[in-house]
Amino acid sequence: MKRYSWLCLLILLAGCSSYTKKGTVIAGNDVNQKTTISVLAGFSTNDAGLSEMISREVAESFPQVELEWENTDWGTTFSSTLRARLSVGDVPDIIVGKAQDAVVYAKTGLLAAIPENVLQCIDERYRSDTSVDTVTYGAVYNVAYQGIIYNKNMFWRYGLTVPRTKRELDSVVSRFESVGIIPFASHFQEDWFTANIMMQFAINDLFTTQPDWGIRFNNGERSFETSHEMKNCFTNVKYIYAHSFPDSFIVQNSECDNRFIKEQSPMYLTGSWSVQAIHAVNSAMQIGIFPFPNEDGTAGLIVEPNLTFMKSASTAHEQLVDRIFELLFTDTEFAESVYSFTQSFPALKNMPMGYDSMIQSDITAYADSGRLIDASVGNNQLIWNFQSGMAKEITKWLQNKQSIEQLASECDKKRSDNK
Amino acid sequence: MKQPGKTSGWKKYSGGIAMKKVIACVLLSALLCGAASAKSSGKKKNSEKQIVLKVLAGQSTTDAGIEKLIDKAVAKKYPDIRLDWECVDWGQDFHPKMQVYIQSGLPDIMIGKAQDVITYGSQDLLGDMTNASYTKEILPAAKTGVTVNNKVYGLTYNAQYQGVYYNRTLFKKYNITVPRTLDDLNNIIAAFKAKGLTPFATHFLDTWSIGNIAMQFAVNDVFRDIPDWGDRFRAGTKNFSTDPGYKAVYEYCKLIYDNTWTKETFSMEQTACDAKLVQGKAAMKVSGSWSIQNFLDIDQSFDFGIFPFPNRTGDSKLLFEPNITFMKSKKSSEQGAIDRVLDVIATDKELALEICNYTKTASMLKDVTPTFPNPSQKDIDMYAAEGKIQDVNLGNNQLQWGGFQDENAKDIAEYVQGKIDIQTALKAADARRSISKTE
Asked: What burial letters (b/e) apply to A72-99, b meaning 16+ CB within 10 Å?
């Protein structure tokens, strides 16, 4: 039926005055004339398939527009691909990444401001995450929660409750190990996993009390070598490694998800992106989420602005890109389908979930008790390029190829990567 | 990776016009051919109109192969219907599969257990069979377990008996009589151990076997006294951790474990376990009639009987469980074809006899009496004559298998091995209260 609708629409368009932008004909009498909008997307594992969904959505309202996608893995190839394209002047019209990218690339002059009508659709909490000097350069579409996803049945089986302090976590870990169960699922084969859990620790243990630590680090006023908190975060990474699969350096994300689903481990320090895989295999699995405990029991669940739309400052199709953004951010039915598909959470204002998340009750409980922490506080100061390099140094340390002092020193040497 | 540009809607539509032209040509050719040869056209129509129904079959070990018998019977009466089977292990994979299909669309026909009707019927996923002609072919007793809010959502096909299978030769050899009370049972356990024999054959590698024996015990020690125990549990007036009946159930599981091959049971599968019982390496096995086929496959002359596992009050009943149960998707667009298939299944007595003899089960269809050899039949007849039989779904319908009984079974496995204490195991079941039954 939709194809017939398109035909009717195109016939109408052919007979009507053309939609123009800066004097450029977008759809003229020749209905076959296409406008191609290039999109560079840095996707996470649970976003696979989104480009097709977005293309279909756009095609329904803008049949004369063709989105030309270049999809990359955000954690490994997104930044390098974008830099490579910038270097040859091949700037994509639309960039889809994370909130932290908006801050990084806005400072380079690459991005244009997001129009106010689109910003009006976004929850105020997520606007500052993509703003530089009061101008917002990224439109946050959804959010992810980060912490320890745990198997409730296994906790009930061994009479365990959710730990609030590090000491309580030690008890939980000991209990599982006493019956031969590996406490944590992990996949250290991927640097992004190492970087992610390191930042989870840093956000709770350092940035909550020193919110400008990253800026001071850039200025040379702070260092990893002299930071007790950062070294403690390194130690926490080692803690996960020590209580995880013996082969975790050859375990990939999908394999790790499978092992968690098969109850080989009751805890998985990750984010709500893992829920998609769990839901696909066993939607009846009883899971919850809690923050990795800190010393005094005040750790909060981390909320991270995730999928973020950005507009090139040099696009030749500025108005059209704005209209596409307007479409994506105002079609609530489409937004619900994206949230359900990716098992993510809305960043749009007054937006219903549209599906029952397996970890919703825990998220609501942490939100109601004021125990949510925005990941942007750390991610905007220690940018991904730096985090990625830091993860490689942590791996060397975990493999006993360097001491913790050398690790801290190597991180300090990468200060320039953070600018 | 750079993706190639997408095919536009316009191009797709243009393709549509081109395809319509091709179809028009094909139709025209077909008409011309039809005029030339009506006979050959008729044959072609049959193959073109074949209806394919997707079937998800959650099977027990003895059910494997019945799909071929059903295929044959359906094809004989309705050659235009083909069944596309997906056969999975009921205990391991049926419920995860159903969860996936609930998201993506249910198969036209599902085959599970009667308790699945309660789980999925209460979620408004199943088609109503109340007034279907084939429902009248089922024994009235077999309908109660598949009825939700006065509507029949399942076609119960056969049933299995459950209890303690015993090696009659060993019992005779050592002059041991069937126990009626727990004291009797403890005495014969001691007697067999004194003779150097393992009292119970078990295969706890299969979590379902732990869940099964726990429910057998619970029906006689919990649900018989309080038939709505599960509902009271959900209402919060009953708890596993404070109920003496359920504590006894878990203790019976420990009794079985303490008197079996403890070093092997968590790595032993059913077939190997059944073989050891037949070979006289154990005297008894808490099981169901799904084991009969194994027993007789190993030794056609194996002489065995069955008795109910004794309860605290000494009045245990032999349990029967409606087994293979057909369900249909409420949203399927092929309701007519589904009903024709179900009609074959409910009215083809030869098929029923063949399946019951093959699976060594009792038929739930009217006027079908299996003829397979079953040395335990005389025991069954005796308990039935005394009115000492009980539908195990009294418990199964109140405490669902997926997510509850199966998780409790894992708790019991840890408890019997000493990894957790009984109170922790019982409290874990209490923690699952909200998921003990799908509303």
From this structure: bbbbeebbebbeebeeeeebbbbbbbbb
CATH topology of domain B50-157+323-363: D-Maltodextrin-Binding Protein; domain 2 (3.40.190)
Which residues from chain A sit within 8 angstroms of residue B3, using beta carbons? 51, 68-71
Give contacts of B9 with chain A, Cβ < 8 Å. 2-3, 6, 59, 63
Cβ separation of A286 and B432 shorter than 8 Å? yes
pLDDT at residue number A190 = 94
CATH code: domain A145-303+362-418 is: 3.40.190.10
Residue of B5, B12, B411 with shortest CB distance to A157: B411
Tokens of A70: 């270049």
Query: CA of A52 to nearest chain B CA: how many angstroms apart?
Result: 9
Q: How confident is the model at residue A348 (pLDDT cuts 50, 70, 90)?
A: very high
- pLDDT of residue A167 exceeding 80, the answer is yes
Closest chain A residue to B417, measured at CA? A179
**Phi, psi angles (nearest 5°) of residue B123:** -95, 10
Domain ranges for chain A, please list them: 20-141+306-346, 145-303+362-418
Domains B50-157+323-363 and B160-320+377-435 alike in fold: yes
Q: Which residue has the higher pLDDT, B11 or A27?
A: A27
Residue A33 confidence (pLDDT):
75
Domain ranges (residues) in chain B: 50-157+323-363, 160-320+377-435
Predicted confidence at residue B197, as pLDDT, reads 97
Q: What count of CB pairs under 8 Å joins A to B? A: 82
d(CA B293, CA B360): 6
Say whether B96 and A281 touch across the interface (CB within 8 A): yes
Write the CATH number of the domain with boundaries B160-320+377-435: 3.40.190.10
Cβ neighbours of A151 in B, within 8 Å: none
User: Do the domains A145-303+362-418 and A20-141+306-346 match in fold?
Assistant: yes
Q: Does B403 touch chain A (CB under 8 A)?
A: yes
Instruction: List, in sequence order, the alpha helices (H) in A107-203.
Output: 116-119, 152-157, 166-178, 191-202
Mean pLDDT by 10 residues, chain B (439 residues): 28 30 38 38 50 96 91 97 96 90 95 91 94 92 84 94 97 97 98 97 97 97 95 98 98 98 96 97 95 91 97 94 94 96 97 92 85 89 86 90 95 98 98 89
**Alpha-carbon gap, residue A285 to A339, rounded angstroms:** 20
pLDDT of residue B290: 85
H/E stretch holding A136 reads strand A135-136
ipTM for the predicted complex: 0.78
CB pair distance less than 8 Å for B10 and A10: yes
CA distance A71 to B252: 58
Tell me which of A190 and A2 has the higher pLDDT: A190
Asked if A108 reaches chain B (Cβ–Cβ under 8 Å), the answer is no
Nearest CA in chain B to A178: B419
- Interface check for A72 against chain B (CB to CB < 8 A): the answer is yes
User: CATH second-level architecture of A20-141+306-346?
Assistant: 3-Layer(aba) Sandwich (3.40)
Does B96 contact A158 at a Cβ distance shorter than 8 Å? no
With CA atoms as reference, the chain A residue closest to B434 would be: A286
Cβ atoms of B199 and B259 closer than 8 Å: yes
Tens digit of pLDDT for each residue in B405-436? 999 999 999 999 999 999 999 999 999 999 99
**Inter-residue contact A110 to A311 (CB < 8 Å):** no
What pLDDT score was predicted for residue A353? Answer: 72
Residue in A70, A73, A50, A38 with CA at minimum distance from that of residue A384 = A73
